[in-house]
Amino acid sequence: MNPLVSPPFSSSLSRRALLRYGALAAGALLLGRRGLVAAPSAAAAIPPGKAKAVIQIWLGGGLSHLDTFDPKPGAGRDYCGPLDKPIATNAEGVTIGQLLPNLTGQADKFSLIRGMTHGNNAHETAAYIVQTGHPEGDHVVYPSLGAVVSLFMGVDAGYAGFIPPYIVLTGPQGRFSEAGFLGPRYKPFATGGDPARPVFAVEGIVAEGITPERQKARQKLLHDLDSLGPYLAGDPAIQEFQKAGDEAYDMILGDGAEVFQLSREPDELRERYGRNTFGQSCLAARRLVERGAKYVTINSNGWDTHKSHFQAMNRKLPELDRGLATLLQDLSDRGLLDGTIVWCGSEFGRTPRIQWEAPWNGGRGHYGKVFSTLVAGGGFRGGQIVGASDARGEEVAERPVYPWDLTGSIYGLLGIDPDGVFPRYGDASVRLTPQSGVPTGGRLKEIM
Amino acid sequence: MRKHPALLLLAFACVASGGSANPYESAPSARLLPAPSAKLDSLVRAGSVGTAPTCSDAAFLRRVYLDVLGTLPTREEAEAFLADNSPAKREQLVGRLLERPEFADYWGMKWGDLLRIKSEFPVNLWPNAAQAYDAWVRAVLAQNMPYSEFARQLITASGSNFRVPQANFLRAAGGRDPESLAAAAARVFMGTRLEGWPPKLRADMAAFFSGVRFKPTKEWKEEILVVEPGPEAPADLLLPDGESVSPPRGTDPRAAFARWLVTSPESPFAAVGANRIWFWLFGKGIVHEPDDFRPDNPPTNPALLDWLAKQFSASGYDTKKLLAIILNSATYQASSIPGEGGAFSYPVRRLEAEVLVDAINQVTGSEDEYSSLIPEPFTFLPEGTRAVALPDGSITSSVLELLGRPPRDTGLVAERASRMTAPQRLQLLNSRYVLQKLKTSAKLRELTKSGKDARGVTDALYLTILSRYPTELERNTIQAHQSPGKQPPKEWMLDVAWALINSPEFLYKH
C-alpha cells in the first residue's frame, strides 16, 4: 500500500479526506527534504575556534549598568546616587564604577559592551533572549548558549571527560529551560552544595559520612539484590540504567571528585577570590575549565534591587569585583585566558533614574533598552569599549549590540558556525542565531 | 454495568523454564476476563506473535498503582492485596483505583504537560491563570467529564483567563495568531503538528480561530479572550476533511470546528484520544508519537486502534471506562519479561520525575517543600504537596529538573525525558538529598523496632519499597551482607533500603 494514502486516523476515512491528507503528507516530505539539504552545507566554512571553553557569570535579576560598567558621573544625583566617582583603569579611556577597584587592574584583559539592548523588561523573557540569543515569540524554544556548546563540543563531539561538559555553579536558573528543544540530555549539571564551605558537597559526587569501604559494600549489595535486572538484560532502558550506573561510580570512586576539592588550592589564592559563595564559585569554574569542562555558568542571584539598591550594591559589588578580577588574573597567569571566554552580564540593566520615593527608597527597576556586558578572553581583545549609551544611560547612543550579535560572536570564537543549523533538527530555518526579521548591530568584529 | 460478561477462559502459555517461579510472573492459570478486555486481547494477538505470560499479583499491583495513581501501594495495601484469594481481585482493584482522588492528580499532571500549564517562559500564564487552569483540569478528571465535552469547552471558551480556566487553552497556545491557536487544537485533539500541513490546509484550519483576540485588563497579566470576526473573515470555512461550513453571522466559528471535531466520523478525535491513553499506559502509542499522526506514520495495529476509538466514542467518551477495559486485559497484565520470539510484553519504563520523587518520599516518610519565588506573586504550596500534584510547570525543584520533568515548552510528549543518565544515577545513589531522607527516616527506623527479627524487618522493607515479599535468595543475600561486619540493625536496614531504592525494580515500571 502506498504510505502516502494509507489512512492516518481510522480505516473508515473517506476518499475525499484521503486526498486531503495525501496532500498533507506531500507537504511533510518536502519539509523533510529541505532540512536534509541544508544540514551538511553549513558547517564547513568556519575556521577552528581559538576558544576552548566558556565561563558565564550570570547576575540574575539585572545588573545596574550605571553603577558598574557604564558610569555617568555627569548625570547628577538622580542618576548616580552616592556612586558618582567612577575610577580609571589600566586601559586608556576606560572608567568603571567606584565599587570595582580590583577590576581596574584587569581592564586590559576585558572589554565592555555598553550598547547591549533588546527592550524587554520581564525577567523570564529577557533571560531567555539574552541566554539563547533569540527573540521571544518564535514557536521554537531555543537552547541556551551552554546547551548549544554542550551539543557541538560535548558528548556528541567526542567529549569524554569525567566532568559533565556543561556545569552550573551551584543552582539551575529556573527562569526557563536551558536545554530548550534539544532536550534534557543537554541540560547542565548543577553542583548544588556551597563551594565556600569546608567541604564543597557536590550533589551525588561527594557524600559526607560514607566511607569508600561502605560505598563499595553497598555497590555489591545493590548488584546482588537486583533481581529484576538480569531478566531484562536485553532491554535498552535497563542497559542505559547499567551504563549510567557505571559512569556514576566512576565519578564517585574515581578521580572525578578531585576537581571540586578547592582545599587543594593555596589559601592565599582562595582569599584573593573571596571566601564567599561567589568568589569560590569563580575558583571552582577555573578548576573546571582547566580540566576540560566546556561551559561553566555561575548563577549569582539577588541583583533584582528594586528597593534599597545602593545598600545592596555596597554588599554585592565588592564580592563581584574580587571574584571576577581574581578569575581573570588567575586564568591569565595559567595561560588559560586565551582559550577561555569569560562573559559577565544579566538579562537587562536597571533604570538609570533612581526611584527615591517610598516604597523603593532609592531603587532601580528593570531596564532592557540599554545595558552592559563584560567580555574577556578566548579571542576577545581587552581594553576596549564597544558602543555607548547616551549621557544618562537611557538610550543606545552608538553601536547597538543585540543578544544574538553577542552569542553569534561567542559561537564564532568557539569554532561553531553561528549561522549553522542544529544537526538532526528537521527544520532548516532553525539556526543558531536568527537569520532575518530582527534588528542587528553586527557581530563584535572590532574586538575579535 | 456489564450485563453479560462473556465467560472467556484464557489459558496462558507457561514459560519453558518451569521450576521455582520468579517474583514477577504468575503460574499459568485460567482466568475470567470481561468481554471487552478479552476482545482487546484477541486484537492484540492478531497483530503480534503472542503475549508474554501473566505478571504476578505483586507486579500487577505495583504497575496498576503507578499507571493509574502515579503512586506506590502502601505496605498495608500490598499485604492485603497479596493475601486476597478472590479470583476477581485484580478487576476489583482496578475499579477501586479509578475512583481514588490521586487519579486526578496524576492524570492532571499528564494533561498539564500537554496543555502547557506554566506561569513562566515561554507560556507566561502567570500563577493566577496557571493555578485556575490546573484546578479545573483536575476537577474535570475527578468527575470524569466526557472527553468530548472537555475538548469542546477548551476550544470554544471565552472570557478572562483568571476567571474562565478553559480560556487558557488558547492563551497557552504559544502564539496569538490564528495559526498558532489552530496548531494547539490540532496538536492536542487531532494528534498532528500543524506545521507539517500544506499551507492551504493550515490556512483553512486557522480561519476558525481568526477572530480570537486577547485583551489586557487592569489586573496584572489578566487577559480576556474575545471573538471579534474581522471584515476579512470568510463566510465559508473549510473543515479539515474538506467539507465546508458557513457559521451564521455573529456566531463563533470555533463552535463549528469543535462540533466537527467531536462528532464527525471523519474526525481523528476518538482515535487520537484512545491512542494517547494507550501511550500513557504502555509508553508507546499504536501511532507513535501520539502527537504525530501522519499518513506516513501509520498505526502498528490499525484494527486495534479502530476498535479502541469506537469503544471510546460509543461510551460517550468515558475515559475511565476505556481505562478499565485496557487495565483488565491480559495484554496490560502481561509480564514485563520478554517472552519467546518477540511476544508482547509490558514495556519497562523509568518512573516519571514527579512519581519517582513522590515514591522516595513515600517509602522514607518524608516530603519536599515546593515554592515559587518567581514570578510574583510568590507561591508557597502546603506541606506534603506531592510532586505529581504541582499546579504549575514553573514550580519545581532541582531534583525534578534533573530527573527529567518536562519544561512544558512544546506540549509534545517527547519533552518528558525518561532515559536514565549518569547525573541522575549520581543523584539517586549518592546525593545528600536521598541519603538524608534515608538516614533521618522515622518510618524506616520504626521497622527495626517493634520486636521484629531480621526476617520481619526484611519483609517490611520489601513490602514498603518493592510491594512484594523477598525471595529466599534475597533473604540470604541480606543475611550475608549483615553478618561479616556485625552491623547494628539500623545500619544494614539502611543499606538494604538504599539498595532497593536504587534497583531497577524500584526505579522502573515493570
Q: Quote the average pLDDT of chain A.
A: 87
Please tell me how large the radius of gyration of chain B is.
Answer: 25 Å
Query: Helicity of chain A, in percent?
Result: 25-40%
Arrangement of strands in the largest sheet of chain B: 3-5-4
Largest sheet of chain A: 8 strands, mixed
Q: How far is the first residue's CA from the last residue's CA of chain B?
A: 31 Å
Into how many domains do the coordinates of chain A divide? 2
**CA(first)-CA(last) distance of chain A:** 58 Å
Contiguous runs where pLDDT drops below 50 for at least 5 residues of chain B: 1-20
Indicate the CATH topology of the largest domain in chain A. Answer: Alkaline Phosphatase, subunit A
Number of H/I helices of chain B: 23
Strand content of chain A: 5-15%
Q: Which shape of chain B, going by the Cα principal axes?
A: globular
Order of helices and strands of chain A: HEHEEEHHEEHHHHEHEEEEEEEH
What does this structure look like?
The complex is a heterodimer of chains A (448) and B (510). Chain A is α/β, with parallel strands linked by helices and 448 residues long. Chain A is 31% helix and 12% strand. Chain A has helices spanning 15-41, 77-80, 123-132, 145-153, 212-225, 236-253, 267-273, 277-290, 309-333, 403-414, and strands at residues 53-59, 87-88, 95-96, 110-116, 166-169, 189-190, 295-300, 340-345, 349-350, 366-367, 371-376, 385-386, 388-389, 396-398. In chain A, the strands form four sheets. An eight-stranded mixed beta sheet of chain A has the order 6-5-7-1-8-11-4-12, with helices on both faces. In chain A, strands 2-3 form a two-stranded antiparallel sheet. A two-stranded antiparallel ribbon of chain A has the order 9-10. The longest helix of chain A has 27 residues, at 15-41. Chain B has 510 residues and is mainly alpha-helical. Chain B has helices at residues 35-46, 57-68, 75-83, 89-98, 102-115, 126-142, 147-156, 168-171, 178-189, 199-207, 253-263, 269-282, 302-314, 319-327, 353-364, 398-402, 422-430, 432-439, 442-448, 454-466, 472-482, 489-501, 504-507; strands at 8-11, 30-33, 159-160, 212-216, 223-227, 237-238, 244-245, 349-350, 371-372, 379-380, 508-509. In chain B, strands 3-5-4 form a three-stranded antiparallel beta sheet, with no helix packed on it. In chain B, strands 1-2 form a two-stranded antiparallel sheet. In chain B, a hairpin with a 6-residue loop joins strand 9 (371-372) and strand 10. Chain B starts with 7 loop residues before the first strand and ends with a strand. The interface between A and B is large, with 89 and 93 residues.
